[in-house]
Amino acid sequence: MFPSRLRSLLFAPAVRPDLLVKMPATGADAIVIDLEDATPPDAKDTGRQNLLRLAPQLASEVPVLARINDPSTPWYRDDLQALTDSLCGVVVPKVEQRSGLRRVTDDLANLGLNLPVVAGIETALGVADCRELLAEPTVAAAYFGAEDFIADMGGVRTASNREVEMAQSQVVLAARIAGVLAIDQIVADFRDDERCRTECLNARAMGYVGKLCIHPAQVAIANQAFMPTDEEVERAKRLLAAYAQATAAGVASLAFEGQMVDEPVAAQARRVIAQAGSVAASPTDS
Predict the structure, then answer these.
(1) What is the pTM of this model?
(2) pLDDT of residue 276
């Protein structure tokens, strides 16, 4: 079953079985066995063999996805043969056209696999057309890939993220309209915990539900950042209590702890409580 939340989506190369077997212990909401960028061309076959061998074992502990090479590559067909129903989904990188997504869906169906798609939006064309792409019915989630996007744009990647803010906003907006989960870009410097935490909090404020992780140390940071704090939950409860009292008296807005509160603000508070409840209800939390 595709996970209902993806605060942390942890990637590891398909050619590193030593890393793959350790992934369930990280506490990630889901893991990705990566046949694409993290697996060199001359090691694709080894990666596929590892996927076939390890995915069923890992899937008994944590939701497992596989990132395949996109349909335009020579490795795509062989990647499909390595997919099994032990996976909960397939990650398709560099999505640019609906026809490409439909090809993946049709090819999976021909193999007897009904796997939801996580669409990688990481090129100029993909970002430009992301609203149309994420409307495809098999897409369950999407991620924004800043590194590939800037490489495609011919730009310069900076720690400020200013160069990707517009694209980042477009992807999360398209995901919201389509009703799919939006997952934010990687932090390439996995030693920079503060940058990871800051990016997670900023992404959550935009509407992203999780972070692509490339190192186990990033998982706990993402898991914490993408759920409400105790203070946020308690304030949301107080706000809703005050709002309920006001509306019962026929008042549509009120001043609460220095803030004007009306229905949109109350809706945000309800979402905070709902998010906290979903986390508390999960037996797989770290």
Answers:
(1) 0.88
(2) 83
Residue 229: its pLDDT value, please? 87
CA distance 119 to 95: 6
CA nearest neighbour of 222 among 76, 6, 3, 1: 6
Per-residue burial over 237-257, b if 16 or more Cβ lie within 10 Å, else e, is eebbebbeebeeeeeeebebe
Separation CA 17–CA 33 (nearest Å): 10
pLDDT at 284: 39
**Residues with pLDDT less than 50, the chain:** 280-286
What is the spatial distance between Cα 23 and Cα 31, in angstroms, rounded to a whole number? 7
| pLDDT at residue 105, rounded to an integer | 95
- Closest Cα partner for 225 from 187, 265, 170? 187
Q: Domains, the chain, ranges and CATH?
A: 8-225 (3.20.20.60), 230-281 (no CATH)
Tokens of residue 137, six digits: 């019915």
Check residue 115 and give its pLDDT. Answer: 97
Q: Which residues contact 69 (CB under 8 A, 6 or more apart)?
A: 35, 36, 44, 75, 76, 79, 93
For residue 280, the model assigns a pLDDT of: 43
263 phi/psi in degrees, rounded to 5: -60, -45
Neighbours of 230 (CB within 10 A): 8
What does the block give as tokens for 44? Answer: 């694709």
Kind of pairing, strands 89-92 and 64-67? parallel
Strands 30-34 and 64-67 turn out to be parallel
